[in-house]
Write a structure and sequence with these properties.
heterotrimer; A: about 300 residues; six-stranded mixed β-sheet; four-stranded antiparallel β-sheet; 13 strands; about 35% helix; C: about 260 residues; mainly alpha
């Protein structure tokens, strides 16, 4: 990680309140140039609000924020000129076709017509939408719309790309295509800031992330380091039926480092999952299903907040 | 031997049984619930429209017409009495057209409520009838207050005057039900609704002899009136409001044209709905 | 409040350009139909009612055919209607359903750019319609003085006033029902502001109310120009719309800022 370069984003004790409700509370982090930085947390954790403040479209209630050395509250247009924004809900212009969406958006930045035209051809190729250049927005699939929204956010050649829940609502295949596109951007040196409530997405894409819950940062670090720090190597997932999970969990308390009884299953955290499973069976319990897997960010979140990431 | 009565009872008591008989009523109920959210503005418009027509045309334009034609009036009555019943018909036609066009588009493509209804035991003719009835009720909520204001304005002189409301509703249906049939054929909105309102509904309201006798128009525009449901309903409404000088056979022609248009429109609407909902 | 630089990057023409590109996808006849609306009124009422009414007296005592009396009124009304349609329904859809402005304000554009771009689009269309209608008037022989040419900039000014205020009001509305109220407020203004008859037919207190409303000023301004009945009082009408423009723009920009840049 290029630690020597000055951070492109610096948030210090950032706060956002809407009346009585505090959406973001005392959030501090820095993002280095070229880094892929994630905000992982459940819906309503304050991720989108943070993104809106970073994007210069929401004024903060407290704290300090610097984007590329500028305060977005005072230099909104200048900051936004350097950003690419992919909002949570696609807001493509349905009155324009695919190509015109890119051209018109480029003009919003005041880029010259000839220059926009040149960039748009490259972006259509990047988004794998060359064949669809003349199509109506309504005729695109969800994955295509998402790729177009990302291409649109790149038209001003931004130094930072903000992605709010980039793959929410997409089918698995469309997600993988999208991840591939984002990897390419990362390789080209674009700084990515993304929010997600999918732990696999966070693990795949992020160099470093913060886990947020109820407007606060619960932990920070690289995905692998967070897992090492807050969970065991393996997890055993066993189901005994919704009636009996809690009861059996109490009897397995001594088997691993930690046991979590969820409504639909029991999680046992241990270095060797298969070994624990054998012990469970030896004690006479008959799980309906059982699964041994590596620990993930989901487990980190569960450990830190006591709740599941996807509810 | 017991199986036949059991099957008969099951048929009667199955949830689908009632809706098979009362289906149109349930559709009506659903549509009226949607209309209710427009409550206040609907009432304001229902009272505002006739008041404005009274002030602007009954009094304002009326004074100019009086100055131009002298005391004879038009059709043997003051301009106010001549124009207001016909403007009531015009408003009814506009309200019905709006509901017909957008209600049908909402039902088939925008919110697909008709599609949802078709997935229940409701039949297509029931959906069509229920929808038509709901628009009738909605249009009546505009036409009845209008008639009250017209009555207060002193434009009704015949005991048959309340029948002018029926004439307005029939005229509105004679244009609006065929419009539903047309709206049911729209697969992609490329501006057809705007076209219909600007090139059909607006000229109809203006050229149908509502604000002046059809005979004042040049000959090359007069045919619009004869083809227009609004002219037929306006003449019926006038006959009811103050009794016209038209022969009885012409009154029957007005009535006949309107009834045929409603019936043909309903039949085409059912066909159109079938094509869209039962593919 | 913040400086103009936070509200605008001086690029309203990109917003105008977006509408120009978008118009390519719209049914041509829908565009053309906006021109026909006042023409239908003119033909129907000019021929139909004109046959009953004959001539109307202007304030300066001259008598003009009924069609020449209503034509400038219809021109002013269509300038109002066009501006209102573009700045209310179109803006409402873009704001609440298509989220066009969310996308615009995530770029370098500021709220003032958006407001000016949208309004200048409404004015562009209005100027085209007004010019076409003036040609129709010329063909029917209803332009009674050379000053009729000035009705085009007058129509643009009327449109500007209504569009600026209309967009501000629209930004405060959330539902279709509320949007219906705009139409409801416009109808009496259309019918009672002296389009179809001189307001001197009314009792004096009604005249005062009508004269407080913007459309009457628009109609009087255009009627003075097309009939040649000029007076210094017309500057008052111009002033009325200039005030509407300024207040409307300030309010709209503030609302857009509050809505999208909170």
């Amino acid at each position: 990680m290029p630690d020597t370069a000055a951070p492109v984003i610096r948030a210090h004790r950032l706060r956002k309140a809407y009346g009585e409700t505090v959406a973001v509370d005392d959030v501090s982090f820095e993002v280095a140039p070229g880094e892929a930085f994630g905000l992982l947390g459940p819906n309503g954790a304050g991720k989108s609000t943070t993104m809106r403040m970073l994007g210069g479209v929401a004024a903060r209630s407290g704290g300090e924020l610097e984007i590329l050395g500028m305060d977005p509250d005072r230099h909104g247009p200048e900051v936004r000129a350097q950003l690419g924004v992919v909002p949570q809900l696609d807001n493509l212009d349905t009155e324009l076709n695919v190509r015109d969406n890119l051209v018109v958006y480029g003009r919003y930045f005041g880029i010259r017509r000839a220059e926009v035209a040149r960039r748009v051809d490259a972006l259509l190729a990047f988004a794998q939408l060359e064949e669809k250049a003349r199509s109506r927005i309504d005729d695109l699939s969800g994955g295509m719309k998402r790729r177009l929204t990302i291409a649109r956010a790149l038209v001003n050649e931004p130094r930072i790309l903000l992605l709010d829940e980039p793959t929410t609502g997409l089918d698995p295949q469309a997600r993988h295509i999208l991840w591939d596109r984002l990897f390419r951007l990362k390789e080209q040196g674009t700084t990515l800031v993304l929010t997600t409530h999918y732990m696999d997405e966070a693990e795949q894409l992020c160099d470093r992330l913060v886990v947020v819950d109820q407007g606060r940062i619960m932990a920070e670090g690289a995905p692998a380091a967070l897992i090492r720090e807050h969970s065991t190597r393996e997890v055993l997932e066993v189901r005994f039926g919704s009636e009996r999970n809690a009861e059996v969990a109490a009897e397995l308390d001594d088997l691993g480092e930690r046991v979590e009884a969820l409504p639909d299953r029991v999680l046992v955290y241990a270095e060797d999952g298969e070994h624990v499973l054998a012990e469970v069976v030896r004690r006479g319990h008959r799980p309906i299903t059982s699964l041994v897997r590596r620990s993930s960010l989901e487990d980190v979140f569960l450990r830190l907040t006591g709740r599941s990431l996807v509810e | 031997m017991t199986s036949a009565p059991v099957a008969e009872r099951a048929r009667r008591e199955a949830p689908g049984g009632r809706s098979r008989r009362l289906g149109a009523w349930y559709v009506l109920e659903h549509e009226l619930r949607e209309i209710r959210s427009y409550g206040v503005v609907t009432i304001a418009e229902a009272l505002g429209a006739p008041l404005i027509a009274w002030l602007a045309f009954g009094l304002g334009v009326g004074a100019l017409v009086q100055a131009g034609t002298g005391s004879a009036g038009i059709d043997g009555v003051p301009y106010l009495a001549f124009v207001l019943p016909a403007m009531m018909c015009g408003l009814a036609l506009q309200v019905w057209s709006q509901e017909a066009m957008f209600g049908t588009l909402i039902g088939i493509t925008w919110r697909r409520t008709f599609v949802a209804m078709r997935a229940t035991p409701l039949s297509v003719p029931q959906i069509a009838t229920g929808f038509v009835l709901s628009v009738l009720v909605r249009t009546a909520t505009a036409a009845i207050p209008y008639a009250v204001v017209v009555w207060i304005a002193g434009a009704f002189s015949s005991p048959w005057a309340p029948a002018s409301v029926a004439a307005a509703l029939l005229g509105a249906a004679a244009f609006g039900v065929p419009l539903m049939a047309y709206a049911a054929t729209i697969r992609r909105d490329t501006g057809q609704p705007a076209m219909v309102f600007r090139f059909v509904v607006l000229p109809l309201t203006l050229f149908s002899g509502t604000m002046f006798p059809l005979s004042t128009l040049p000959d090359w525009l007069e045919w619009i009136g004869w083809a227009s449901p609004l002219w037929h309903s306006s003449q019926l409404a006038r006959a009811a409001a103050y009794g016209t000088t038209e022969p009885a056979w012409l009154v029957l022609v007005h009535l006949g044209v309107l009834v045929v248009l409603v019936a043909a429109g309903w039949w085409l609407f059912v066909l159109g709905l079938r094509r869209r909902l039962e593919r | 409040m913040s400086a103009v630089s936070a509200l605008s990057s001086g690029n309203a023409r990109a917003v105008f350009g977006r509408n120009l590109v978008g118009a390519r996808g719209v049914n041509l006849w829908v565009m053309v139909s906006g021109f026909f609306e006042p023409v239908f009124y003119l033909v129907a009422l000019g021929a139909g009612l004109g046959g009953l009414i004959g001539v109307v007296a202007l304030p300066d005592g001259r008598e003009v055919p009924y069609a020449a009396f209503i034509a400038p009124g219809l021109l002013a009304v269509s300038a109002m209607n066009g501006a209102i349609a573009d700045s209310t329904w179109n803006v409402f859809f873009k704001m609440r359903f298509m989220r066009v402005y969310d996308a615009m304000l995530a770029t370098r554009l500021g709220p003032l750019d958006v407001a000016l771009g949208e309004i200048s689009w409404a004015l562009f269309r209005g100027a085209v319609y007004a010019s076409a209608f003036l040609i129709v008037m010329q063909c029917f022989g209803l332009n009674l003085a050379w000053t009729a040419v000035l009705a085009i900039p007058a129509a643009v000014l009327i449109g500007f006033g209504f569009a600026a205020v209309g967009m501000g009001i629209t930004s405060c509305l959330r539902t279709f029902q509320q949007m219906d109220w705009i139409q409801f407020a416009l109808l009496p203004m259309f019918m009672l502001s002296g389009t179809f008859f001189p307001i001197s037919l009314y009792p004096e207190w009604v005249q005062w109310i009508v004269q407080a409303l913007p459309l009457w000023h628009g109609i009087e301004l255009v009627r003075g120009l097309t009939t040649g009945a000029l007076s210094w009082g017309m500057l008052l009408h111009v002033g009325y719309f200039a005030v509407m423009v300024v207040l409307g723009l300030v309010f709209t920009t503030r609302r857009l800022r509050a809505l999208f840049l909170t």
